[in-house]
Every structure is written in structure tokens, then in C-alpha cells.
């Protein structure tokens, strides 16, 4: 397989020099995100996030399966991420690469372990039938900051998704089609978004660190360390992952957490706004469906 | 929501792939990316021609036998149109990501009925060709593909071009064909029960849809009528627009 | 499943009788394996790990991704013995949690060691976990530090790690919650905690991993206690390394 193109010495020096003058190559401020765009598909549970040139497409699907015997009351929630050759030819399909493992681990910790999706609400008949919700994260284009973009994409798709309505009589579960009953949204408990910080040793002051937000691919290749902070807008930290790299002063790190909290609040409002716009668009064309939903209640 | 039977395409929109295209028709949307010619792992290397790797990734779930079958059809087709002998000991990677399939009744369910997986084949073929064109890969010919369903009950029979998923499933037979720009058949996949006459009729219909006679295209162009429903015309105009855009400053 | 830690507020003693800011017994041995270039054995309470260092040696062929050739490549492999935990289960080779730990250790030491002194070479660390009782990653990092000292690989400073937790679960928002130092398995299962590794005696954080939900206000206290714990760990590891050094000097004098 071809190797990833590494930044040249010139690129590296240019970047460092610019950083010393408090400049980023694309002219952004150090704590500025690239333009975030979010669009939804025609179907429920399809979200397409663009962060600069990074593009992530998430598809949520659900089916009825049997739960694990040790957790009879919990539904299943899986997140799959795979970097395909579409992103860059050096990703092999057979062997997961390091960034891929870290991405899936962080999404797992941030969304699954923090119980963002209430898995108990996915239970239909204890020990026999539960919903299995699956999030397929397709990375279409990689220009840095995959973690934050994937996290926004999955959470937006989960909020957009509607699972078919069901009713159970004893051991039998009926799953209604879209025509029969309006599908129901998932029960999400909180929305932890991720913010990734990239660290560079300062060339101006010895021992200081320069901190960048939402790094591009080049910035990611040149960074000496990074930290991903997962937090929801209510100020609950869901995970922190600073996996090695250069060391950062503890006080500066606490500052990062506050920055992350502020950013997550912005992202949350943005996603909610987009969801509301999408819901409005759906209603306009399909007024009858809305009326019917009223009658159902 | 009724899916549009008119095709639409977006070319070269992924920034790191050598060529890319998003093609949608009939409710299917496929994103294709082409990388190549690139280095090939030793164990897969072919001394006299390029290795073509086709990867079909479903919208939900991981690929299974269904995707492998589609990949094998695509592989043998693309090998015929890419000038593989121009790139010995190289690899040409074609990745096709399905992002949207026609809505089925069970929303979000990843279960797709067995046997119906061929319905997406025309979209996959078309995306692959457009992505290859976007990557400027030398091709012997371009390819256009159309699916047709026959509804036959006793005496009467009805041909439906670009059938919807429902029509596809209820049809007595379905045919997916692809023609080169010279009007030669390249892919012929048929399923169901049908007579030889049926097949011949389908063949002629698809041929007309995929490939119009040259003089007819010229006539249409002169009259300013776009070749509606003609796939070859669509591919040509899409590429034409793209080239015109790229050469915008090249007056 | 949830344990009853309500007794903590009465006696201010934890399940194993420690106070909030006490480490468990931390002992380490250096140069335990004669054949390896550097080796160590470390116990943090009942967590026991062994680490061996091979290298710096010639870079192995094409396998794996090479990070440029101007510096040494650090490879880490962790193997967890089947008998190390309470439930005896075999972890697969593709366990993502293990791979994450390996990546963490490798990238932490890549910044700490003077890897530029060894171009075209590989330093491989192999860690064997013999017994698990909480603070696993911290124990692995500590064991690596002293094994690398034994191997004589030049480094900026010690990387020392420990865990810190908080007595209240994330749901309750009481202000009286105490931070805790060096958690064992039972505490890890129940309480929010983080693993922190610092460089030497400074306050700069090299590794910080938290996987449980906690109020953002609680982080500062936990981090402060964790960083302080790291300094205690450093003092102990420094003692071990110096004792070894003195012994070597004595040996050479004779």
C-alpha cells in the first residue's frame, strides 16, 4: 500500500514560523472552528456533516434482535467506523489503523459508556426481543478533526432517527410500518460532543504550548500531542483522552476544558437549530401526516 | 416520496481521492471514489496489467455476499473498459459507498430482501464510470446502464424502465444491461422467467436508452433538445459541463 | 455492581482502610530479567506488572508503519495473563482497549525519550500484566519508566502515573465529595476516575484519560490529587533507581 504523504520540511517550517507569529495557514484564529454544515437525508437517521473539507456521513438503522444473556434488559447500540480507501488510498481494508482504533474507542466511550442513548428504552421483551441500533459512520473525506465531526454526525443522526413503532402482546411484538403508524424518536439522555485540541511546543517561549482547535489534516500531521474532551452542554464530562504526546500544564488543561464546554454549547444549539429546520421542512410537504399524528394521541 | 428517474451527478467533490462522483437516480445515491494508478501489494501484483480493486460498501451494516457479488460483476466489467494494459504492476482502486436506497416500508431497517440487490447495479456501474472519468483514467469506452422490469400476466406484458423498488420486486423478470458507447452489450444480467422474445425486446429498448444512434444525437443537439432518458447523452453532458467549468479561465 | 461506599463519609476510610490521599503499597524492582536490555517488576497494591525493554536496536523490515527515519520508533505490546483478573477471560489480539493503551504508552514515551539520538532504530517495550487490581495503565507506565532507565535510554524526566477518583457518583451533586487517590478495581467500577501521568516533578500532564461521567467542577480536584500522587510515585521510583545505581557502583568498586 502506498504510504501517507508526510509534510515536507518546507511545509513544517512554514507552519512553525506562522504559528510563532500567531497565524494559522488558513487564517483562522487558534480557537476557531471551520465552517460546520449539517444536512439530513430523505430518510430518518441520515446525517451528513461537513467541517471544512472533512465530510462524514452517518446512517442509523435499527432491527429487532435478542439481547445478550447477561444484559436481558438492555438494547444493543453499536457504532462502526471504517476508514475506506475513499478517504485516502493508504488505508487498508483488512487491518484497522491506529487513528481508526482511536476514533472508534473515543466514540464508544463518549456515546456508549456515557449512556447518551438510553439502551434500556430499547427493550421490547426482557431477555427475548430488543432493538439493536446501529450507527454506520462513513468517512467520505478526511481533512483533519475526524473525531469531532464524527461525534456531531452520530449525535445528529441519532436525534434525527425514528424507529418504527411497536406494540407487544405477551410474547408477540408487532412492528408497524411507516404507513401504519408514525415512527418514534429514540430516547436520548444527553448529548456529549467532542472537542479536540492539538498541542504544539511553542518556539517563542520555552516550555509553553500552543493550542489549536479543529485542526486540519496538515496540522494534525505536524502536532506533537492532542487531547479530546467529551462534554455535554450541562457541563458533564463524559471522557477525556489525552493519549501521550507532549505534556501540557495541568492549569492550561483545565482552561481547555472550559473552552470545550463553550464550544459544545455552540455546537448543541447549531444541531438543534438544524433539526428544527429539517422537521419544519418535513411537515410542510406532509401536512396530512402531522394531522394524523394528532389524531393518534 | 417518489424518487426521480432522472439521473443527477456531482463530479470531483472529494478532495483527497484522485477522482470522485456522486450519482443518484431512481432513489439510489452512490458516492464513488477512484484512486490510481497506485502501488500494489506484492502478493496481488499482476505483471502485465493493472489490478482493479472494487469495494462496494452498503449504507448500513458491513458488506456480505451481496456486496461481493456486485463487486465481482463490477470488477469483470471495469476490467474490460479500463485500459489495464497501460498500467502494468499498478492498482486502480474503485470505492463505491452506497448512501441512499429507495425507502422501504420498515424505516431504517437494514434488511433488504434477498435477490433484489441487482436493482442497485446500474447506479453502481454509472458511478464507477463517472468516477473513473473524473480521475482521468484512460478508458477504452464509456458505459451506460439501465434496468428494466417486465410485468407479464398471461397475455399482456408491460416494460418498465428504471423500475422502482416495488416494481422491481413484483416484476416477473428484471433485466440489467450495460452498453458501451459503441452500442455493444457489456453487462447482461437477467432474473426471473421470460421468453426469448421478451428478452429481445428488452435488449432493443435498453440499447435505445443507453445508446442513441450518432446522427440522432447530433440532431438533438442541433435542435437544442436534450437527450431525455438517454444515458449516454447524460454522461456526455455532465462531463462536458465539468470540463467547461474546469477550463473557465482558459479562454 | 454498585458497592456500598456510604461508610466512607462516617470514618473517612476507604474499603481497604486507606485515607483519601494515600497510595497503595508501591514497590518496584529493577533489572529483573538478565537477558533483556532493561527490565522491571512493579506492584501497585495488587496490580502487578512486568516490563522488558529491547533496544534501541536495528529497525525491523517493512512491517508496520514507519514514522520517518530520523528518530527511533517505539513499539509497545501489552499481554494480559488469563489469571490476572477475577473473571478469567482471554483477550483477543485486536482488543481495542489494549491497542489504545499501547498507543498511549508509545506516544507518551516518544516525546519523553531522546529518540532523535537513535535514528533508524526501534525500542520495543513488552509489558506483561500478572495481576490486575485497578490503576492498570498507571502501573504499566511506571513500569516502563524504570525499565527504560534500566536500559539506559536517555530521557527528559520520569513519567509517573497514578489514578484519582471522586467519592460521589456523577448523579449526586453534593459539594462534600472528596477526591481519592490510587483506586483499586472495586473503586474503579463504582466511582468516576481518571488516570494521569506527569513529567517528573512538574505539573505538566503527559497522559490524562477519563472514561466515566463526572461534573466538570469535580475535575480540578481530581486532577490536583492525581498530579500530587504522581509526585509521590516519582519519589518512590527515584528511590528504586538510585538504590540500583548505588549498588552497581559498589559492585564496580570491588
UniProtKB/TrEMBL annotation, chain A:
Keywords: Cytoplasm, Exosome, Nucleus, RNA-binding, rRNA processing. It holds the Pfam family RNase_PH_C. Residues 32-164, 191-262 form the Exoribonuclease phosphorolytic domain. It comes from the Eukaryota. This is Exosome complex component RRP45. GO terms for cellular component: cytoplasmic exosome (RNase complex); nuclear exosome (RNase complex); nucleolus. GO terms for molecular function: mRNA 3'-UTR AU-rich region binding.
UniProtKB/TrEMBL annotation, chain B:
One of its GO terms (molecular function) is RNA binding. One of its GO terms (biological process) is rRNA catabolic process. It comes from the Eukaryota. Residues 12-138 form the Exoribonuclease phosphorolytic domain. Pfam families: RNase_PH. PANTHER family: EXOSOME COMPLEX COMPONENT, EXOSOME COMPLEX COMPONENT RRP46. This is Exoribonuclease phosphorolytic domain-containing protein. It comes from Hymenoscyphus albidus. The lineage of its organism: Eukaryota, Fungi, Dikarya, Ascomycota, Pezizomycotina.
TrEMBL record, chain C:
The keyword Thylakoid does not apply. SUPFAM superfamilies: Ribonuclease PH domain 2-like, Ribosomal protein S5 domain 2-like. GO terms for biological process: nuclear mRNA surveillance; poly(A)-dependent snoRNA 3'-end processing; rRNA catabolic process; U4 snRNA 3'-end processing. Gene3D superfamilies: GHMP Kinase, N-terminal domain. One of its GO terms (cellular component) is cytoplasmic exosome (RNase complex). Keywords: Cytoplasm, Exosome. GO terms for molecular function: RNA binding. It is found in: Cytoplasm; Nucleus, Nucleolus. It comes from the Eukaryota. Residues 22-154, 157-228 form the Exoribonuclease phosphorolytic domain. Component of the RNA exosome complex. Specifically part of the catalytically inactive RNA exosome core complex (Exo-9) which may associate with the catalytic subunits RRP6 and DIS3 in cytoplasmic- and nuclear-specific RNA exosome complex forms. Exo-9 is formed by a hexameric base ring of RNase PH domain-containing subunits and a cap ring consisting of CSL4, RRP4 and RRP40. Belongs to the RNase PH family. This is Ribosomal RNA-processing protein 41. It comes from Hymenoscyphus albidus. The lineage of its organism: Eukaryota, Fungi, Dikarya, Ascomycota, Pezizomycotina.
Amino acid at each position: 500500500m502506498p504510504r501517507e504523504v508526510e509534510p515536507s520540511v518546507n511545509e513544517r517550517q512554514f507552519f512553525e514560523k506562522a504559528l510563532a507569529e500567531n497565524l494559522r495557514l488558513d487564517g483562522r484564529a487558534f480557537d476557531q472552528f471551520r465552517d460546520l454544515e449539517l444536512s439530513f437525508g430523505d430518510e430518518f437517521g441520515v446525517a451528513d456533516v461537513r467541517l471544512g473539507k472533512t465530510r462524514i456521513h452517518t446512517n442509523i438503522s435499527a432491527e429487532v434482535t435478542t439481547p445478550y444473556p447477561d444484559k436481558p434488559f438492555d438494547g444493543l447500540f453499536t457504532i462502526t467506523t471504517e476508514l475506506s480507501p475513499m478517504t485516502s488510498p493508504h488505508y487498508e481494508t483488512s487491518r484497522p489503523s491506529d487513528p481508526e482504533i482511536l476514533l472508534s474507542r473515543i466514540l464508544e466511550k463518549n456515546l456508549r459508556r456515557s449512556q447518551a442513548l438510553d439502551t434500556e428504552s430499547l427493550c421490547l421483551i426482557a431477555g427475548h426481543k430488543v432493538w439493536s441500533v446501529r450507527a454506520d459512520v462513513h468517512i467520505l473525506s478526511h481533512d483533519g478533526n475526524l473525531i469531532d465531526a464524527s461525534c456531531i454526525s452520530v449525535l445528529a443522526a441519532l436525534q434525527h432517527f425514528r424507529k418504527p413503532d411497536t406494540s407487544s402482546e405477551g410474547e408477540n411484538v408487532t412492528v408497524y410500518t411507516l404507513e401504519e403508524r408514525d415512527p418514534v424518536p429514540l430516547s436520548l439522555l444527553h448529548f456529549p460532543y467532542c472537542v479536540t485540541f492539538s498541542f504544539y511546543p511553542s518556539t517563542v517561549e520555552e516550555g509553553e504550548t500552543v493550542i489549536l482547535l479543529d485542526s486540519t489534516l496538515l496540522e494534525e500531521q505536524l502536532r506533537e500531542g492532542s487531547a479530546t474532551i467529551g462534554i455535554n452542554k450541562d457541563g458533564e464530562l463524559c471522557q477525556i483522552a489525552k493519549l501521550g504526546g507532549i505534556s501540557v500544564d495541568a492549569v492550561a488543561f483545565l482552561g481547555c476544558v472550559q473552552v470545550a464546554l463553550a464550544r459544545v454549547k455552540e455546537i448543541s444549539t447549531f444541531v438543534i437549530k438544524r433539526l428544527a429546520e429539517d422537521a419544519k421542512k418535513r411537515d410542510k410537504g406532509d401536512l396530512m401526516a402531522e394531522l394524523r399524528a394528532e389524531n393518534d394521541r | 416520496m417518489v424518487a426521480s428517474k432522472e439521473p443527477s451527478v456531482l463530479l470531483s467533490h472529494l478532495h483527497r481521492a484522485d477522482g470522485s462522483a456522486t450519482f443518484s437516480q431512481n432513489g439510489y445515491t452512490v458516492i464513488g471514489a477512484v484512486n490510481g494508478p497506485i502501488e500494489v501489494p506484492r502478493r496481488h501484483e499482476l505483471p502485465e496489467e493493472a489490478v482493479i480493486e472494487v469495494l462496494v460498501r452498503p449504507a448500513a451494516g458491513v458488506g456480505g455476499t451481496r456486496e461481493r457479488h456486485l463487486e465481482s460483476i463490477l470488477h469483470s466489467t471495469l476490467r474490460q473498459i479500463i485500459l489495464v494494459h497501460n498500467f502494468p504492476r499498478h492498482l486502480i482502486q474503485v470505492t463505491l459507498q452506497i448512501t441512499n436506497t429507495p425507502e422501504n416500508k420498515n424505516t431504517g431497517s437494514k434488511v433488504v430482501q434477498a435477490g433484489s440487490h441487482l436493482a442497485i447495479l446500474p447506479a453502481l456501474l454509472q458511478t464507477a464510470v463517472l468516477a473513473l472519468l473524473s480521475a482521468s483514467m484512460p478508458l477504452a469506452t464509456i458505459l451506460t446502464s439501465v434496468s428494466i422490469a417486465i410485468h407479464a400476466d398471461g397475455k399482456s406484458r408491460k416494460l418498465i424502465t428504471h423500475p422502482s423498488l416495488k416494481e422491481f420486486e413484483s416484476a416477473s423478470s428484471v433485466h440489467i444491461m450495460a452498453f458501451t458507447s459503441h452500442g455493444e452489450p457489456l453487462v447482461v444480467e437477467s432474473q426471473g422467467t421470460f421468453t426469448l422474445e421478451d428478452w429481445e425486446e428488452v435488449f432493443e429498448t435498453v440499447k435505445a436508452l443507453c445508446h442513441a444512434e450518432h446522427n440522432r444525437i447530433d440532431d438533438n443537439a442541433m435542435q437544442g433538445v436534450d437527450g431525455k432518458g438517454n444515458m449516454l447523452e447524460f454522461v456526455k453532458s455532465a462531463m462536458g459541463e465539468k470540463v467547461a467549468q474546469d477550463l473557465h479561465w482558459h479562454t | 455492581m454498585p458497592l456500598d461506599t456510604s461508610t466512607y463519609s462516617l470514618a473517612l476510610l476507604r474499603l481497604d482502610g486507606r485515607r483519601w490521599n494515600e497510595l497503595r503499597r508501591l514497590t518496584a524492582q529493577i533489572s529483573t530479567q538478565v537477558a533483556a536490555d532493561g527490565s522491571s517488576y512493579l506492584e501497585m497494591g495488587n496490580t502487578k506488572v512486568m516490563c522488558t525493554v529491547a533496544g534501541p536496536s536495528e529497525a525491523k523490515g517493512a512491517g508496520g508503519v514507519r514514522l520517518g527515519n530520523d528518530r527511533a520508533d517505539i513499539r509497545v505490546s501489552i499481554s494480559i495473563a488469563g489469571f490476572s483478573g477475577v473473571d478469567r477471560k482471554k483477550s483477543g489480539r485486536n482488543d481495542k482497549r489494549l491497542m489504545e493503551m499501547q498507543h498511549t504508552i508509545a506516544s507518551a514515551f516518544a516525546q519523553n525519550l531522546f529518540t532523535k539520538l537513535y535514528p533508524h532504530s526501534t525500542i520495543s517495550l513488552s509489558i506483561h500484566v500478572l495481576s490486575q487490581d485497578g490503576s492498570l495503565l498507571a502501573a504499566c507506565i511506571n513500569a516502563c519508566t524504570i525499565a527504560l532507565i534500566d536500559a539506559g535510554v536517555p530521557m527528559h524526566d520520569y513519567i509517573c502515573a497514578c489514578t484519582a477518583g471522586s467519592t460521589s457518583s456523577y448523579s449526586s451533586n453534593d459539594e462534600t465529595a472528596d477526591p481519592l487517590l490510587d483506586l483499586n478495581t472495586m473503586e474503579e467500577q463504582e466511582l468516576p476516575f481518571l488516570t494521569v501521568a506527569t513529567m517528573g516533578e512538574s505539573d505538566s500532564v503527559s497522559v490524562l484519560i477519563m472514561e466515566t461521567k463526572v461534573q466538570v467542577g469535580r475535575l480540578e480536584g481530581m486532577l490536583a490529587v492525581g498530579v500530587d500522587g504522581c509526585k509521590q510515585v516519582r519519589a518512590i521510583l527515584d528511590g528504586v533507581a538510585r538504590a540500583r545505581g548505588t549498588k552497581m557502583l559498589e559492585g564496580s568498586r570491588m
